[in-house]
Amino acid sequence: MKTLLARIFGKKTPMTNLTIIGNGNMARGIATRALAGGLTVEILGQDATKAKELAAELGTGVTFGTTADAPQGAIVVLAVPFDAAKSVVSTYGQALTGKTIVDITNPVNFETFDSLVVEPGTSAAEEIARLAPTGANVVKAFNTTFAGTLVAGESGGQPLDVFIAGDNADATAAVSSLVSAGGMRPLVVGPLKRSRELEGFQFVLMTMQANTEFADFNWDTGLLVTK
Ligand SMILES: NC(=O)c1ccc[n+]([C@@H]2O[C@H](COP(=O)([O-])OP(=O)(O)OC[C@H]3O[C@@H](n4cnc5c(N)ncnc54)[C@H](OP(=O)(O)O)[C@@H]3O)[C@@H](O)[C@H]2O)c1
């Protein structure tokens, strides 16, 4: 494992492998899996107290700060709502140069719960990529894994599948390695524009959690590819 991490993050183990922006449910879930894989995690929240509380809950290997701080991780996960993700990327600007930015957002119209807020022919990930500085690579991942299943590390007794889309092979490989280290299966499905389908499909899965026809589904299902 140490060799694998050294290959991804450089020969010297950096202070922080992974920065997570946000301190909510997905921050907890992704941090839990990363820590299980031996990575170090930085939590940056808009509220220092909340970031500190999550860091304390997660335990050793976790530092914290606020979104006024430059992210230290080679991989930066945007564990915030879509509008906030755009704002965070714009505000950080050049501080994200050279980073792999992971967009996990599901740009659902929560007023109607009947559509996405992005236009057909694009995706949240592509919108975020347009705002990222040159030299940063945006990767879509984790948008189909519910937060509780990430904490548990499984759904229905199965390891989680994590769908990954991106245009830069090194960046998708880095996210794949993070996913593998955390005990999940990385599935690199294609270029960043595949995010359109990943976001659309997850919207369907979200409506199923809220649909009383599927009484057993309670934001705890997993999307698993079998053969
Ligand atoms: N929940 C899931 O199962 C799931 C699954 C897949 C993808 N996602 C996606 O993951 C993202 C996060 O979801 P979540 O469930 O973790 O939400 P959450 O529990 O509500 O947490 C959202 C986090 O975003 C922070 N935030 C909001 N605006 C911000 C800003 N401008 N700058 C910095 N931080 C900001 C909040 O900070 P405060 O606490 O200070 O308000 C909070 O820490 C969303 O895009 C969602 O679509 C969620």
Order of helices and strands: HEHEHEEHEHEHEHEH
Q: Structural class of the secondary structure composition?
A: alpha/beta
Q: Radius of gyration over alpha carbons?
A: 16 Å
Uncertain segments: 10-14
CATH class: Alpha Beta
**CATH-level-2 architecture:** 3-Layer(aba) Sandwich
Number of helices: 8
Task: Please state the overall shape, judged from the principal axes of the Cα atoms.
Answer: globular
Main β-sheet: number of strands, strand sense, barrel status?
Answer: 8 strands, mixed
Number of strands: 8
What separation lies between the terminal Cα atoms? 28 Å
The domain tally reads 1
Q: Which range best describes the helical content: under 10%, 10-25%, 25-40%, 40-55%, 55-70% or over 70%?
A: 25-40%
- At the fourth level of CATH, the homologous superfamily is NAD(P)-binding Rossmann-like Domain
Percent of residues in β-strands: 15-25%
CATH topology: Rossmann fold
Strand sequence of the main sheet, in spatial order? 3-2-1-4-5-6-7-8
The overall pLDDT, averaged over residues, is 94
Q: Can you walk through the features of this model?
A:
It is globular, with a radius of gyration of 16 Å. Strands 3-2-1-4-5-6-7-8 form an eight-stranded mixed beta sheet, sandwiched between helices. The two termini are 28 Å apart. It has helices at residues 2-9, 25-36, 48-58, 82-92, 124-131, 147-152, 169-181, 195-210, and strands at residues 18-21, 41-45, 62-66, 75-78, 100-103, 137-140, 161-166, 185-190. The relative contact order is 0.15. It has one domain (2-214): Rossmann fold. Helices cover 37% and strands 17% of the residues. β7, α7 (169-181) and β8 form a beta-alpha-beta unit. With 227 residues, it is α/β, with parallel strands linked by helices. NADP nicotinamide-adenine-dinucleotide phosphate binds at residues 21-27, 45-47, 50, 67, 79-82, 84, 87-88, 104-106, 143, 146-147.
